[in-house]
Structure formats: C-alpha cells, structure tokens
C-alpha cells in the first residue's frame, strides 16, 4: 500500500511540474509568469530528468533557461523550455505530446540556427521513437544528430548522439554496428574535461553489454569496470546501475571459468 501511495505522490508531483513548466513556457510568449515559478521549473525539472533518464543534457539546458532567456520573443529560451517540457511529457508516458513538443523545439532550433538544440531535439525525438518501437525513424534521427554535432564541433552532443545511435542498433540486435558507434561515443566522452558525467558511464555499460553479447568477454569486462568506476563517483544515485554491472561481470566471469574448465577436461580426455 505504501508503494502505491508513493507512486501516486510521484505522479502528482510530475503533473505539477508539467503544469508549472507549461506556465513557464507561456512566459516566452506573454512574460506573465513570476520569476520564482520559473526558477522552480528549472531546478525541479533538473532533478526530474536526472532521476527519470540518467542523462545530463536537460540539466544543461535548464542551467541556461533563466528569466533572462524566458522572455517575450526569445526563441532560444522558448526552444530550451520546449525540450525540457518534451522530456516531462515523455517521463509521464505521453509520447504524442512529447513528440509534438520536441518537434516544435526542433523547428525553432533549425530556424534560428541553434545547432546544439537541433542535435539535442533530434536525439530526443529518436529516443521517443525507439520507445515506441519505430526503429527506422529512431535510427535516422540520431544519425542526423551526429551529422549536426560533427559540423558544429560539439563534442558532448556528438557523444550523446552516438550513444543514442548505439541504443537504436542494440534494440534491433545489430550489435556490431552498436559497438562501432558506442566506442566512438566513449572516446569522445573520455576526451571531455568534466570530472563526472553519467553519460560516459551509460555509454560504457551499453558498450560492455554489446561486447558481451558478441562474445568479446575480456573487452566487456574492461568496459563494465569503467562503467562501475564512473557510477561510483555518485554511487548514492546510481547504486542500482552499479549492481547491474557487477551482476553482469559476475555472470561473464562464471561463464569464462566454466568454459576454461570444459577446455581443460577436453584436453585431459584426449
């Protein structure tokens, strides 16, 4: 019963955040919302996205989505707000609203030449399409995001788009292709100067899973170790993911030990 109550409270909180953020978005058109509400929208949605998705791109957008940007006629602020609003719709399971909202952000970003926002909105659209099982579109959207990120020399967004591409390939069982883009994603993330980014941990875990599936066990172990090391930098938040990687490592090691024992028995019997 406590779990059901907690779930209701969480849903009510998300609905309230959505209402507040919708109000904050209206500010870009009417400048009618109090600054205190806009500040709460930014801080609360930062936490919401971190909990729901384990990604940092929306936190980055929210950091810059301040009362100066959210003003009448500010298309850049409007696009940033729409991206966050789209993520909120996605978190609530309203995929149609998520798609239409992020498409608006995409169109604005394209029209004003904001390449970072264009890349992020393409990735977000791809994520929703992937969740809906529309693999062809889900694959094409992050591919276009990769192209945009390369042309704008945006390292973090390039790594993000490559990771999304890898997830699309993994969902379709195309693990060789997944490994190719995930390796590049991890390389780009590792070249960034941030002290911690969960994005690198997520990409490393995806790469480890893909290599494990392909039978590249030693390489998979190394990438699980890298993912675990990154998650440990904020272990209170990512303990569940640490546990997943540890369990995957244990299963790999058990399988490798069993195969070694079988090989030894085979040599002895011959």
TrEMBL record:
What keywords appear on the UniProt entry?
Cytoplasm, Repeat, TPR repeat
Cell compartment(s), UniProt: Cytoplasm
The UniProt entry, under Pfam families, shows:
TPR_12
- UniProt main location, coarse: cytoplasm
Supply the InterPro entries for this chain.
Answer: Bac_ResReg_Asp_Phosphatase (IPR051476), TPR-like_helical_dom_sf (IPR011990), TPR_rpt (IPR019734)
Please give a single GO biological process term from the UniProt record: cilium movement
| Any one GO cellular component localisation term in the record | cilium
Identify this protein by name.
Tetratricopeptide repeat protein 29
